[in-house]
Write a structure and sequence with these properties.
about 325 residues, alpha+beta, Immunoglobulin-like, Cytochrome Bc1 Complex, Chain D, domain 2, five-stranded mixed β-sheet, elongated, disordered C terminus
Length: about 325
């Protein structure tokens, strides 16, 4: 996107520079042409309709060009490609915590391959931050309580600066990092250096640990809606609204299940606000997305396996009061 942003910015500089020059030329010319002369009476000049149309039409055309060009750049910059690699980012005073879909975790660094589209799904653990990569010409506020998204495709290997561009506290200036762009072979070697397993698998284990599978079943006996294939699809709510099941919707249903209740289901799901970390919410969202993309039989088999083999390390991460609460009331992502 850097080339598109730079071209638009240069165009704006040229237009504003030419208009500034034109204004000062006219100012000097009129000051000289219509200056006071001894013995010469001033004459009243009537308005000129063609002149007024001209100085209204030309700026209008210029502004519409700027609007159309800027809108095109904006929508390209805000619309990630469907096949982009997903990376979850959690901002915290004063660091960037990054987790790849494959499970690799980083702090204040983001490794990406050259030539691949990368989609960042970002949230804040505390205050408003802003994920800013000057070399890529992209910047996006990172907000607590919801996801924001930005994407890029690095075209040249190297190490690029990452900044927080929103004042977030006393150590704001130290909230920096690096975007490490590598050749595909180097990136694969880095990826094979070890991970905790795919993020969706971690989410699957958390899903089982919290007892979510007891209500969110794939048959008609579940007290909560079937989550298989729901991501990215329209969902009809109890209040008559229809919303799209995107990342923010799934996140809100985990933390505030009563806000958007699915039609036909009772409000029995407990909230997990404060009981799961931002990283665990990210993992749950990744899992819901994975079972939406998986084949039905494969998803059923994975869910059964997960429910019987929940990982001990996930059990330790979930706060002790989450499990009894979730299992006693039933888990229902609406």
């Amino acid at each position: 996107m850097a080339g598109h942003v730079d071209a638009l910015y240069i165009f704006l500089l040229i237009v504003t520079g030419m208009m500034t020059l034109l204004i000062f030329v006219c100012l000097i010319y009129f000051a000289a042409r219509y200056r006071h002369r001894p013995g010469v009476r001033a004459e009243q000049l009537e308005g000129s309709t063609p002149l007024e149309i001209t100085w209204s039409a030309i700026p209008f055309v210029i502004f519409m060009v700027i609007f159309a060009w800027g809108a095109t750049v904006y929508f390209k910059e805000r619309t990630p490609p469907d096949d982009a690699a997903e990376v979850y980012v959690v901002a915290k005073q004063w660091m960037w915590k990054v987790e790849h879909a494959e499970g690799q975790r980083e702090i204040n660094e983001l490794h990406v391959p050259v030539g691949r589209d990368v989609k960042l799904i970002m949230t804040s653990q505390d205050v408003i931050h802003s994920f800013y990569i000057p070399a890529f010409r992209i910047k996006q506020d990172v907000l607590p309580g919801r996801y924001t998204v930005e994407w890029f495709r690095a075209t040249k290997p190297g190490v690029y600066h990452l900044f927080c561009a929103e004042y977030c506290g006393t150590q704001h200036s130290g909230m920096v990092g690096d975007i490490v762009v590598q050749e595909p072979a180097q990136y694969e070697a880095w990826m094979n250096g070890g991970s905790t397993g795919p993020l969706s698998v971690t989410g699957e284990k958390i899903f089982a640990e919290l007892g979510c599978s007891t209500c969110h079943r794939t048959d008609t006996q579940g007290r909560g809606p079937n989550l298989q294939g729901v991501f990215g699809k329209p969902v009809q709510l109890e209040d008559g609204r229809t919303v799209t099941a995107d990342e923010n919707y799934v996140r809100e249903c985990i933390l505030d299940p009563g806000a958007k209740r699915v039609k036909g289901f009772q409000p029995i799901m407990p909230t997990f606000q404060g009981l799961v970390s931002e990283e665990q919410v990210n993992a749950l969202v990744a899992y819901i997305k994975s079972i939406s993309a998986a084949k039905p039989g494969h998803a059923d088999e994975k869910s059964k396996t997960s429910a019987s083999t929940a990982a001990p390390q996930i059990r330790e991460e979930v706060q002790q009061n989450a499990l009894p609460n979730a299992q006693s009331n039933g888990s229902q992502v609406q």
